[in-house]
Automatic annotation (TrEMBL), chains A, B:
Matching Pfam families: HTH_1 (PF00126), LysR_substrate (PF03466)
Domain HTH lysR-type: from-to ranges: 1-59
Domain of life according to the entry: Bacteria
Protein family (similarity comment): Belongs to the LysR transcriptional regulatory family.
Protein name (Swiss-Prot/TrEMBL): LysR family transcriptional regulator
Alphabetical list of InterPro entries matching this protein: HTH-type_LysR_regulators, LysR_HTH_N, LysR_subst-bd, WH-like_DNA-bd_sf, WH_DNA-bd_sf
Keyword terms of this UniProt record: DNA-binding, Transcription, Transcription regulation
Transmembrane regions listed in the UniProt entry: none
PROSITE patterns associated with the record: HTH_LYSR
Length: 304, 304
DNA sequence: GGTCTGCCAAAAGGAACACTTAATGTACGA
DNA sequence: TCGTACATTAAGTGTTCCTTTTGGCAGACC
């Protein structure tokens, strides 16, 4: 059972004439390819390459295996195309709406997987802050959209003909600058402890988070800075710089490029739900496929 | 690029009718196969399997991919056979002589690799304690033989028509029962410290180790038990039981099933060289191939 | 002759992957 | 209601693979 990646490496060397060139053409470093080819030679039980001082050629055995390799790679390519055609995806397009955070942290691996399986589907990603995503699906501007809803808050009803499926529920956690963690212990922090703390908040009248901001105000947190920017990049940067604390989704806290200290809150009253809005029976095949990937993809994300 | 192992799993499920049966037929557990198939489905971007309550069937997409998979696996099989034929190995045989320790610790992974590449070569492994291995190659009883030579000792000259290639040089180290390590420190132990220690030794007149035993006697070690058994399994067992200390090859000390404390000696005068004895130009193709595997295989063994 | 350049290989460290066992879920038949 | 058969989920462990760094080697060039 030869690893097709290694077979592709062999073919690439045959065509490029050197390991280094083949590696850069495939997007690897030269040592990586050298190791893989050495393993392939061991597995094949024969010398496949002749190392020249001006490149690398294939031996007779190498040419033979490269020939079979081309056929193997061809079969796999055909399989991919056939599967795409069977799924009715070939040549179609897929338009995804997403809010900023999901677009940064969640969507990329899923879209990568989709693209690998269906390279000829035209992909479009558009940024919509909720509830604009729902509107976009309703208007037919996108095939599906990722949205979020915060608790405590009232859930907006779905327009008729649209459906919402929950992908992930995550807690909101407290983030502070490193070394500024409030009080002792590592367990959940009572919300009351936020009283008097300078709070970096989203716009209080920003619909999705309205309930959260009000609850924080009731706990006695002191508004320090109000961020009007979509997403949490700015909030995290300000918190990391020591301007105050903030309550953000767990995923944001963990993936933040700025260093942050993270702490859960008690009681765990703050949550956000990430959902995908779609058209149900009227979904395109591409949309259905992406939704399947979203489901398993988010399963992995929550496990990590 | 579909992993051929996963493709084989899909074919196996198609033929077995259930994941559990396919798994046991392939030598895996059911969860392993289930996970691999789930990944294949994600990669393919389509549902391949229909989970019944009485087994698992393939969907149309699954059947399609399974068909391509059969062809891919076929190509790989053909490639293997062609490579074997090209190497002149098909239907041949390979007889290997080895001393006990190498047969236990070094040869198995190399033979496994050889067998995978050339399943139709008839393999024979025979146990020869040096210098009988050289004689066996000279007599044509085996195609090649692994032998060892200890230092200090005189190297026997090769009979004409035979050649010896060094594969590995390893130090001899001191082993004791756990908790009985002599003196302090973790650096190399001066040989003089062995004076008066009870020594588990190989037969003093056993040719390969004669020089080693004599040097240990000169250092003042007290013979406690003399082992006449080939290999070091018995020596290690006695040492581990606390009957005395011993000086054994590093590889033996590290791979011993009985728990042992290991310490290097100073000066590092004791070594053994593991070589392969062969016929040079008159080697069979199979022998040449195995020697290539031995070279890279021992490279890995020394790295581990 | 000495230096530079291009190419390949070895070593070490970190991230990802695949396997295992154990536990959970689900439909069917007695 | 229980027992069986099948599949999945979860958690832990070992291996694999890729990257960076380093070293060696042959020809080109000054």
């Amino acid at each position: 059972m030869y690893d097709p990646t290694r077979l592709a490496a062999l073919v690439a060397v045959a065509e490029a004439g050197s390991i280094t060139r083949a590696a850069s053409r495939l997007g690897y470093t030269a040592p990586a390819l050298s190791q893989q080819l050495a393993k392939l030679e061991r597995e094949a039980g024969a010398a496949l390459l002749v190392r020249h001082h001006r490149g690398t050629r294939l031996t007779a055995a190498g040419e033979l295996l490269a020939g079979r390799a081309r056929r193997v790679l061809d079969e796999m390519d055909q399989a991919r195309h056939e599967l795409a055609r069977l799924a009715g995806l070939s040549g179609g397009r897929l338009r995804v709406g997403t809010f900023v955070t999901a677009g940064i942290h969640l969507l990329p691996p899923v879209l990568t997987a989709f693209r690998r399986a269906h390279p000829d589907v035209e992909l479009t990603v558009t940024d919509y802050e909720p509830p604009a995503g729902v509107t976009a699906v309703a208007a037919g501007d996108v095939d599906l959209a990722l949205t979020h809803a915060y608790e405590p808050a009232a859930a907006d009803p779905m327009p008729s003909g649209l459906f919402s499926e929950t992908l992930l529920v995550e807690e909101l956690v407290l983030v502070t600058a490193l070394g500024q963690m409030l009080s002792e212990g590592s367990g959940p922090l009572p919300v009351a402890e936020l009283a008097g703390r300078p709070l970096i908040s989203s716009a209080p009248e920003h619909p999705p988070r309205r309930g959260v901001e009000r609850a924080l105000a009731e706990a006695g947190a002191t508004p320090a800075v109000v961020c009007e920017s979509p997403g949490y990049a700015l909030v995290c940067a300000l918190v990391s710089a020591g301007l105050g604390v903030a309550v953000v989704p767990e995923m944001v806290a963990e993936m933040s490029p700025a260093p942050l200290a993270v702490r859960r809150l008690e009681p765990a009253a703050f949550r956000r739900t990430i959902s995908v809005v779609h058209r149900g029976d009227r979904n395109t095949a591409a949309a259905t496929t992406l939704m399947a990937l979203l489901r398993s993809g988010f399963g992995r994300a929550s496990a990590a």
